[in-house]
Amino acid sequence: MKVIRSMAAMRRESAAWVRSGEVVGLVPTMGALHEGHLTLIRRARKECRRVVVTIYVNPTQFGPKEDLARYPRPRRQDLALCREAGVDLVFAPENLYLPDHSTWVEETECSQGRDGASRPGHFRGVATVVLKLFNLVRPTRAYFGQKDAQQVDVIRRMVRDLDVPVRWSPCRPSAIPTASRSVRATVTSRPGNAPSRSSLRGCCRSPPGGKSIRPAGCGPG
Ligand code: PAF
Asked: What is the pTM of this model?
């Protein structure tokens, strides 16, 4: 298993994979890996030739009152779990932002209400870093924790609105254990593999402040 810390090295690796047409699965995380993450990694392992896990505690999704410094960072344990799960590459940069970073991805509908109301700026930070990770890793598929339903909505909407070449795959709830069922969503991507309108239709499933009316991210909205 490779561990990469620089953006330049990550770009070189992903460019080589894209050139050779490898199917690359991305599991973006902030570390402190748990069973939910491992379920995503196992799924990626089954579906993809290469599996990349990113470990990056993204400062821009933390509010001023949220303690970024105290976020758990059990790096050794995380790497051991990744190795055991058959991950090919861990991308664990120290920093992903230039000092004068000034460009943000702001989704303005799905991000309203619920966590969006209690954590102003949170989804802007999430959408921005996820787009950066997509650009650096260039995954064919990406796997997100389904328990963060609003996050999944926001990313899905960003992908549709910005024409990110990513497509949601239908999920097969019966194929995963009940305990993990709430923690999986999959998107697929490849340069030139633009999302179909139908696959991204109606991606914001629940009204701002309302409850999800069906399992989040399970197939086309
Ligand atoms: O769900 C998370 O762990 C984070 O929000 C993510 C998607 C890795 C972006 O930092």
From this structure: 0.83
